[in-house]
Specification:
heterodimer, A: 545 residues, mainly alpha, two-stranded antiparallel sheet, 2 strands, 79% helix, B: 311 residues, alpha/beta, Rossmann fold, nine-stranded mixed sheet, 11 helices, 9 strands, 17% strand, globular
Amino acid sequence: MHSPALALTWEIWGANRRGFLVLVGGLAAAGVALHVLARMFPASEGLKDLGFLPLVLSMPLLMALFNFTERRRRQGFAGFPARLFALPARTRLLVTCPMAWGVVCIVAVYLAWALLVLRPLGVEVLLLWPATLLAAGMVFYQTIVWCLSGFRLSRLIVLALVLCSLVAVGCVPSVVETEYRRAVEWYLTTAVVLLALVAYGAALIAVQLQRRGGGRGWQGAGEVIEHVMDLLPRRRRPFTSPDQALFWAEWRRSGWVLPGGVLLTVFLIMAAVTGFAGRDPETTARTAAWLVLLPFVLAAVVGKGFAKPDFWSLELALPPFWATLPIRSAAFLAAKLKTAALSTAIAWALLLVVALPWLLLACDTRDLRGLWHTFTAIYAPVAQWTILSLLLLAAMLLTWHLMIVSLWSGLYGRTWFFVCTAGVGSVGVIVLLGWCVLMVEDGTASLVDWLPWAPWLLAGAFVLKSWGALWAWRQAYGRGLVSGAFVGVYLSAWLGATGCLLALAFCLSPRIDWLRQTLILVALLLCPLARLGLAAVNLRQNRHR
Amino acid sequence: MGKLCLVGAIFLPGLAFVLAWHATADLPQRVSADGYSVRLRVEGQGSPTVVLEIGLGGPLEEWAVVQRGIAGFTRVVAYDRLGSKHGKPKLTGSEVARGLHAALANAGLEPPYILVGQSFAGVYNRIFASLYPTEVAGLVLLDPAQEEFIDWMAVHHPEEGLSRFPRDRWPEAAGIEATLDELKAAGPLPNVPVLVVTGTRVGQGSLRDEVLPTWSACHANWVQKQPQGRHVRAEASGHAVHIDQPELVIELVHEVATSAARKSKSTARGVRPARVPDQGFIHTDASPRGAPRLQFLPAGVETLHLRLRQV
């Protein structure tokens, strides 16, 4: 290499070349698919909305590619790569190079997508303001990741707050009067650029401090936090069983992530609605819909981390300490399942306790009351409360399902397998979403055409699920990975949960037979069965690597 | 364990396929309707045939309670145009009426028909009755769209009303103006019972509360012009009368069906048909699920109440 900058560029590329190829390949494939779909459905509004999805999904991937950190095993956190400090290069170069490439790439991706995909689809998008915002977002992201490297939780919270604030600021020009829009955009662009420069300066100072051996410069705060943590009540009693100890350890590591995420996002939504969007009936109805969707969306994201042996580690192999414990694989699995269940229950309880009173007391609920009135007109009083209770249970079951649905691939211990299954699952969800949007847009014609096929497709899926479950559980039981008692307990829980879902199907559609039968088939698919058996088998592979 | 797996491997797929077979067998049939297809569900036996038509874009499943109630005393067909590929950008009222006529004929459902329409389906029903006057034995219009009110809305609330429906890729919505023109040009309705139900419950949105007196007055004005018209104010109902007060709809349909049956018997005997009380008002003030108190109802209502309880 002729220059340090080139060497650093090569290092960024070399460490993430697969990710870059996936990004470019995925975007290219999505762009081609959108162009083909645009020819097939020329007047589709949903397709235009769908055009933003690959762009939105590519942003977290880009952030991950330009994360530019390395885990420091001794300190137990990921920060700016310490081995680079020994190189004969200025700190300014070490910081500027990854930051500049991050900014260039994120702006290039946005501009390419906007000009080559969105505009040909007929979507009028701004160029300067979003590009500035994305570039600033990358600078803020890298600054926070490097500066707060010693504080995993604080770093997450600050990142979430900053990114949410950027999204909110990004929406400001679209809500002001048209005549002031250009001026507001100009002021905001200037302010964001100045803030990005300040962030760049902060990153320079923080990395310089770390390079001098001062490390993070946060030891004082860290000690204070350590003291506070010591003052908090801790568990002193001995564990009565290994299962209890495993559950306790799993809960301490990852159990609070979903409830914490839900609570934080609820507060952000409440602040955004109160500050920007107002509380008229329509906004209230939309906010309520998003609040209901929130645990599902977060569980789908958190579930990917929860599927790994250690939530906070990028390593999928089971650490030797856990792998060599003299307990069955089922005990690990049971701890994960219980933690996910408790997380889900707390997340929904928090949502109900915090968001519901706020919606009812502080917002205009006329539209929601209209929906409630229709609901009460359709169902008798006893059925209303039964349906509401069962709906809450079904929502919790679905959230739990999303939390544990990837355990079978995460516990296998192979990164490529985990990434491939997650990628295939995500692509499947996107394709299904796009298909539904296009079907609904097609004036329900095609959707109704699919109705006769839906029960058979669901039945086929259930057959695959049941045969897969029988095979997987037989393997797990035959190899002694799970005990008979464990199989019995989980099967009973599955039957109980599925029974509740069947009751919901009956209550929801007491008079329309085809809808009831279809809902029953959906209910049979909702509780995980086959993949948990596979998780036990795969965990064994991971333990014996 | 092995035997259990074997039993499961056979039983579970069987269960799934039985459920799927039941579900597909119960789906509404698709019937050809003058160039496109409609979804249609027939229940009950007898004559006249009651035709249930939902407002713009709704599914026929909304009629489930009403249809099951009516099937207790006559044949009833609910239909919608969901899943229809029309091949043209807009569908007018006369095309809908001709399509329905063809679909009923193709399904072997003979006249006379009692048309029950909710919201904009009221307009389609009126065009059908004008096109095929001899085949219609009565109309029950549930909170129907009404031309006088639409004109009033165009002046007082031009941004609201029917103009808010998206026109592209929705042939019925694209044909609203043409349908209203056809309605104004259509001939008079046949001399049959015409019941118009207005959902007068307040609290269904500020705009609806504001325009409700005009909405109700327009219905009343129009009903007065019908020889056998009657206006019903359903105080426990909003716009979706068939969902809010299905019992009321069933009773009204039974009233019209009884009248039609009496008329056909009298015609068969050569006797002049008895006249339904003109322009009477029925007020209902019961809760949505309570039995509504009806006034000026013909005989046989008690029997109907008994039948409803059985339903």
